[in-house]
Amino acid sequence: MSRIGKAPIPIPSGVEVKIEKNRVTVKGPKGELARELPKAIQVRVEGNQVLVTRPSDHYTHRSLHGLTRALVANMVTGVSAGYTKRMEIQGVGWRTDLQGGTLVLLVGYSHPVEIVPPPGITFEVDKGGRTFAVHGIDKELVGEIAARIRRVRPPEPYKGKGIRYLGEQIRRKAGKAGKIG
Fold it and tell me: Per-residue pLDDT averaged across 53-57, rounded?
């Protein structure tokens, strides 16, 4: 039995979970999420918990069991608490700004790079413009937008300049050795 899949998902107060066929809808104080789940996996609400079960020990059912439970748990957490990815910019003169909800990155290109948030995503820029955050209720979407922002200027291994997740360790390389003698 899957260790992750067999764990029940507690439903916090203020969150409502509806299951219709293989579609799960979760409503909470921060918003609403819906997702199609695999038909083979059964999801049911019992009291204030969501239980995920599989019909057999077939390898596809085993692999989908933990995945389905994790997806539903992420939806419940997202609508109740939300998700945040904090990021930072390192580089001389590099900074970020927020203009009407759009994130503007000034990272060494000849032009500013504008990131328009999709529905459900908001940006927050700290004072000084060196650190910022991506907020949302969908864990997958928050991670995808953060990865797209990081791809604008990934951290390079020689000086460490670039956009990185807060606390991310970049493996540094030694530069040229120079002439000896």
Answer: 91
> Do 12 and 75 touch, CB atoms closer than 8 A?
no
Tokens 């908001």: give the residue. Answer: 122
Greatest distance between any 2 Cα atoms in the chain: 78
Neighbours of 99 (CB within 10 A): 10
Q: What residues make up the domain containing 23?
A: 9-80
Say whether both 38 and 52 belong to one domain: yes
> In angstroms, how far is the first alpha carbon of the chain from the final one?
66
Considering the entire predicted model, what is its pTM? 0.89
For residue 80, list its beta bridge partners: none
- C-alpha to C-alpha distance for 20 and 180, rounded to whole angstroms: 73
Task: Mark whether 103 and 135 lie in a shared domain.
Answer: yes
State yes or no: pLDDT of 50 exceeds 90: yes
Domains of the chain: total: 2
